[in-house]
Write a structure and sequence with these properties.
The complex is a heterodimer of chains A (595) and B (272).
Chain A lengths: L9 H5 L9 H6 L4 H31 L7 H7 L9 H37 L7 H21 L26 H30 L12 H32 L18 H35 L6 H14 L15 H13 L1 H15 L8 H23 L2 H7 L3 H31 L1 E2 L2 H27 L19 H30 L3 E2 L10 H4 L26 H7 L19
Antiparallel strand pairs in A: 1-2
Chain B lengths: L1 H21 L13 H32 L14 H34 L2 H6 L4 E8 L2 E6 L12 E4 L1 E5 L3 E8 L4 E5 L4 E5 L5 E6 L4 E7 L12 E6 L1 H18 L19
Parallel strand pairs in B: 1-5, 4-10
Antiparallel strand pairs in B: 1-2, 2-3, 5-8, 6-7, 6-9, 9-10
Helix pairs in contact in B: 2-3
Classes of the chains: A mainly alpha (595), B alpha+beta (272).
Chain lengths: 595, 272
């Protein structure tokens, strides 16, 4: 379908060129430039990634050496009151904060905040977001939510401790009194507001500000992933917001929406209602975190196999199908709550069905790799890593979508291993694929490739061993969230497994220091200049914008003629001497109608 | 490029052997139940099926990376023709029917005929009915006693100590006083949440005598990990003797004015 002619002039009128702001405050702090906001989100996300990682290491320490003193300064500093030992009350705050920080305050800002902001306008050929001021407000609202998280660590009765799912009645004052849990619930609400502002912006920008000729079927897959994620956020984060608000009222204003049992007055409310609200958001959230990753993978396998993405439309429609279905499978988180058996079976059927579009995605990626000319650059290695860990995570999901297997596996470490491989490891590796790939465009320099390769190998091997170890522990029956799993005799023989899994986790964490070093050394040290198009690809940000891009991105808004994956065309090679063609570049010689 | 791959390979192998040397036996816990093998068999089939899929994927990626490297001429194929699309969809459909389809039909049949078939379990002769009240951080159990009525003077009440006869269905009705808990019997492959304000159900049947563990699977506060109980499977005669003597003890300790001790409820019969 070709774009109607009037679209050609519209983006020009909508997007005049503004000069960059002069003052430091307007330029770097309260900036409305999507590229600056992207970098703000990236810094904020990476810092909280370190914090969430530290919490994970403390959990792993506890599972390796339950009740033993945390070594070095760390124990004495963090657990002074208990003599350096993690107590059961400390422990529950560790895994609660770890989960919430990683999901809402690390992966979300990196994948969606940073790369959504950076890529959407650049890759669709726009000068900025549709609502730049809303964009700024979104970041600073998000920053406020991070402050609330940090404040929760200062609360007198400790930070939140009801698990990342925050199930009531435990998450009400019945189970977790004190300001820590309230601050965390407030932080979730506030970050939800920030996400909604950002997502409205993304959705609108993709609809309204695509360059002339940038049809939906010529969008880079990364933009497709980010756009679908934004749609899911707009639809379902408000549901989470309402759940958080009602929970906040239950905690602080004496309502009883979710309280039942001995603490209920005059009938009370229904704890299961919260689970419905939470998972109507919570299951789409899994796809919210993974769709941008899928998009990046879809583009990068094509870029580095130097051939067109296999069945681009099939990939796009698979992602759309997953997006639509993501909200109607959520009941599989609640099979064991006493759900109506018919409802349970319906959710099981839908859950298994969602594996079909996911399989189509995988097959498309694998066929893109086939008969390619694969360059194992650092971003490509991370991309292959995503396929590897998401393959493992997706396949283990089949076990958990099934009710009769959940009779045994639900709430075990098998679940923990599964969801870490999918929403944590895959989105983590995809974040790094994106960082290594677009760092040159963001900062004008190349990260060190040797350090990057070492970082990749430690990450992918470490992730496989750590979350594989969790799968094995869950298969042997170990429940999640146990302060000391070895209280149970049937788990006593898993001490060695848990200890080794922890050693792998410590190695994985130590390997991230390679990235930290690479990041700072490149950013503040010399760093190899990136060049205009270091990866030799044809998307607009590499072909039509400076490196790093000007304040207004494009002097002339490009007119798009092709899709994002124009590789391996013999006519192009003959005429231009290279294997790629820009999205806005006219094909040489006679050529069938552009795609 | 070659050296890092070798190093990583060696690391993986070393790790695999080290983990193996640490403790033997990472398999499923011993199965002491009538129906647990249904779970085990389905898990094992799915491990094989997904294992094969994963292996195919990894081998495919390795072959692509090593055989179709920088010196290989890339194919310009786009895979956007009808044949490619049908091929991809057909492959996905076959995998779906074999793996997911098998999971779905086994699961539905196992649930309907066994795990969630409460009516038959409850009405079979010799069935044991137990009410369970979970709270931070222990399990209160209640047996009806000789009169068959719950919340009466001859009830047997115990803490973290479930005794059941071998070869008889045991049906539990479960609730919670404070927060969510989840009754988890690893050796019987069953689990059910305890939800304040409502009653959930679970049944199982032991096929052998012995001492097993019951645990909590749902985070319920700092001492979640200590919510451990003991499940003892006794020969029928021993069980009956225990129940009779415990009921007599219960009758002696009965205090009609202690409302908080009478937390039981009238059994909610399942319609067949």
């Amino acid at each position: 379908m070709s774009e109607p002619v009037h679209a050609l002039s519209e983006p020009f009128e909508l997007q005049p060129i503004h000069p960059p702001p002069k003052s430091f405050l307007r330029r770097w702090v309260f900036s409305t430039d999507h590229k600056v906001i992207a970098r703000q989100f990236l810094w904020a996300g990476l810092l909280f990634l370190l914090l969430g990682g530290l919490l994970a290491m403390l959990i792993r320490w506890q599972w390796a050496y339950p009740g033993e003193k945390v070594p070095a300064v760390l124990g004495g500093f963090l657990f002074r009151e208990s003599g350096g030992v993690i107590g059961p009350a400390n422990y529950q705050t560790l895994f609660t904060s770890h989960g919430l920080i990683m999901i809402f305050f690390a992966i979300t800002p990196i994948l969606i905040g940073a790369f959504g902001n950076f890529l959407i306008p650049l890759q669709i050929g726009a000068r900025d977001m549709a609502f730049p001021k809303l964009n700024m407000l979104s970041f600073w609202t998000f920053a406020l939510s991070q402050v609330l998280v940090l404040l929760s660590f200062q609360a007198r009765l400790g930070p939140a401790g009801a698990g990342w799912t925050t199930y009531p009645p435990l998450s009400t004052s019945v189970g977790t009194p004190g300001a820590g849990q309230s601050l965390m619930v407030a932080a979730i609400f506030v970050t939800g507001v920030a996400t909604i502002m950002g997502s409205i912006n993304y959705v609108t920008t993709v609809i309204r500000l695509r360059a002339p000729g940038m049809t939906y079927m010529r969008l880079p897959l990364a933009v497709w992933g980010l756009w679908l994620t934004a749609i899911l956020n707009v639809l379902f984060v408000p549901v989470l917001g309402s759940a958080a608000l009602l929970l906040f009222l239950d905690r602080n204003f004496g309502t009883q929406f979710f309280i039942a049992g001995a603490a209920a007055v005059r009938g009370g409310g229904d704890p299961i209602l919260f689970q419905h609200l939470f998972w109507i958001f919570g299951h789409p959230e899994v796809y919210i975190l993974i769709l941008p990753a899928w998009g990046v993978v879809g583009d990068l396998v094509s870029f580095f196999a130097r051939k067109p993405a296999f069945w681009y439309r099939g990939t796009v429609w698979s992602m759309v199908t997953v997006t639509v279905m993501s909200a109607i499978v959520y009941g599989h988180h609640m099979y064991m709550t006493g759900m109506n058996p018919l409802l349970g079976k319906g959710f099981m059927a839908l859950t298994l069905l969602i594996s079909v579009p996911a399989m189509v995605l995988f097959i498309d990626w694998l066929l893109t790799l086939w008969q390619g000319s694969i360059r194992t650059t650092v971003p490509m290695l991370f991309t292959l890593g995503v396929i590897f860990v998401f393959g493992l995570g997706g396949l283990t999901g089949l076990f958990l979508g099934d009710i009769s297997l959940d009779l045994y596996l639900h709430d075990t470490m098998f679940v923990v291993g599964h969801f870490h491989l999918t929403m944590a490891a895959a989105s983590f590796l995809a974040s790094f694929a994106a960082i290594y790939f677009w760092f040159p465009k963001m900062f004008g320099k190349q990260l060190d490739q040797r350090l990057g390769k070492a970082h990749f190998w430690i990450s992918v091997v470490g992730i496989t061993l750590v979350f594989g170890g969790q799968l094995v522990a869950g298969y042997a029956g170990q429940q999640r969230r146990l302060y000391d799993p070895f209280q149970y005799q049937f788990l006593a023989h898993l001490r060695g497994l848990n200890r080794w899994t922890s050693y792998f986790a410590f190695t994985l964490a130590a390997g991230q220091l390679l990235f930290v070093w690479n990041w700072f050394a490149t950013l503040f040290g010399k760093g190899r200049p990136a060049g205009e198009n270091p990866w030799q690809v044809g998307t607009l940000e590499w072909t039509n914008a400076a490196t790093p891009p000007a304040h207004h991105n494009y002097d002339v808004i490009p007119t798009v003629l092709h899709g994002p994956h124009e590789f391996a065309d013999p006519a192009v090679r003959a005429a231009l001497g290279r294997d790629w063609l820009g999205q806005a570049e006219r094909a040489p010689g006679p050529r069938e109608a552009s795609r | 490029m070659r050296a890092p791959r070798l190093v990583v390979g060696a690391l993986v192998l070393a790790a695999a052997f080290a983990a193996r040397a640490a403790e033997p036996g990472f398999g499923l816990p011993h199965d002491a139940s009538l129906d647990g093998h249904r779970v085990d068999e389905l898990i094992h089939f799915t491990i094989w099926a997904t294992g094969i899929l994963f292996a195919v994927m990894v081998v495919w990626m390795l072959v692509a990376v090593f055989r179709h490297g920088p010196s290989h001429a890339p194919s310009p194929a786009r895979g956007d023709d009808r044949r490619s699309a049908i091929g991809v969809l057909a492959l996905a459909a076959v995998v779906f029917l074999v793996v997911d389809g098998n999971l779905f039909f086994h699961s539905v049949s196992d649930l309907d005929r066994h795990f969630w078939n409460y009516a038959v379990a409850e009405q079979s002769p010799g069935a044991v009915l137990i009410e369970l009240n979970a709270h931070q951080w222990a399990w209160d159990l209640r047996y009806a006693g000789p009169d068959g009525q719950f919340n009466t003077a001859d009830d047997v009440v115990s803490l973290n100590d479930m005794r059941v006869p071998v070869d008889a269905p045991v049906v539990l009705q479960i609730t919670s006083t404070d927060v969510l808990h989840s009754l988890y019997l690893p050796n019987f492959r069953v689990k059910q949440d305890a939800v304040p304000g409502s009653v959930t159900r679970l049944w199982f049947q032991a096929k052998e005598t012995g001492v097993f563990e019951m645990g909590c699977a749902q985070h319920c506060g700092p001492n979640h990990y200590k919510m451990r109980g003991v499940l003892t499977v006794l020969p029928r005669a021993e069980y009956d003797a225990w129940l009779a003597s415990a009921s007599a003890d219960g009758r002696r300790g009965w205090d009609p004015d202690d409302a908080s001790a009478h937390w039981g409820w009238a059994w909610r019969r399942t319609e067949p």
